[in-house]
Amino acid sequence: MKTILWATLTANGNYAQSGPENPPKKEALADFATHAQAAGNFIVGRRTFEAMRGNGGGGPFGEVDIVVVSKNASEIPGVTVVRSPQEALSYLQQKGHQTALISGGADIHNSFLGQDLVDEVIFNVAPVLEGKGLNLLINKDNYQYKHVKLLGCKPLGGDVIQLRYAIDR
Length: 169
Ligand SMILES: NC(=O)c1ccc[n+]([C@@H]2O[C@H](COP(=O)([O-])OP(=O)(O)OC[C@H]3O[C@@H](n4cnc5c(N)ncnc54)[C@H](OP(=O)(O)O)[C@@H]3O)[C@@H](O)[C@H]2O)c1
Known about the structure:
Layout: E1 2-10, H1 26-39, E2 41-45, H2 46-54, E3 65-69, E4 80-82, H3 85-94, E5 99-102, H4 106-114, E6 120-126, E7 148-157, E8 160-167
Parallel strand pairs: 1-5, 1-6, 2-3, 3-4
Antiparallel strand pairs: 6-8, 7-8
The structure holds NADP nicotinamide-adenine-dinucleotide phosphate (NAP).
């Protein structure tokens, strides 16, 4: 099963944070919905899932398998709760999915990257600059680098640019 990490970055390279005064761009949200429908699923951290729910329920995801990763949360109606990134992938594989879409937030994205569980990254560069913020890292403890292959680059509208890279693993 192929794993795709989908994330928004700021124009100065942070992992973009959003909130009521700085909501995600509608073009990026529409692109996320397209990828979620195509994959038939998405994996999300417990905190981001709660924020999505707080904002009105997570969008047009009727038939999409939503997998919430949490060490502690118990059952949540309408979604599958798992205890680890690997368990999220095992669950989707066993359901017959060809692709798993990893949708955030920072902890979840860094857990998947740190465990070398990502085949492709989709970065949407949003027209915003941030101060001190969050980062996506392949390793939290040591300096490390990894070359990736550019697969595509396209504007999504609303001044958002999408970059896609393959990770060899
Ligand atoms: N740039 C983007 O594309 C994007 C996308 C989404 C969100 N965001 C931003 O990201 C921030 C939220 O991210 P976050 O890091 O606070 O939260 P998160 O990644 O959405 O959720 C964190 C929670 O997920 C669970 N978790 C994380 N790693 C785990 C692991 N390895 N095994 C088991 N459970 C694990 C834990 O849940 P329990 O505490 O229940 O154990 C943890 O508290 C916000 O600022 C939001 O705006 C950005």
